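Fig. S4 source data, part A: sequence.
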Amino acid sequence: MGLLAGHSVCRPDLTIATEDHSIPTVDSIEPSVDPVSRAQVEALRANAPEFGVPLHSLGDADQGVVHIIGPQLGLTQPGMTVVCVGHQDPPAGSSHNDGRHGG
């Protein structure tokens, strides 16, 4: 939505992207056969370099679960405010913080 509205990434130097949630857990070298998931991965692969965002794509040594790679790579530290957006998140915020998950 933001890109379609002409917005850009404000701080690509503080942004990372990884393929997660839209890739298969088995034979994950290839994107999903699901057309919606495949389109999401293809859009991410096109948009990340266009906007200067580092992409940890399938096959990349640092590719992994979006909630995990930040700390693993030392990109997120205690005391930082971190926003993690996935395609499953509702427009108002993360589904992980709705009270049902203790978040």
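Fig. S4 source data, part B ends here. The two ends are 27 Å apart (CA to CA).
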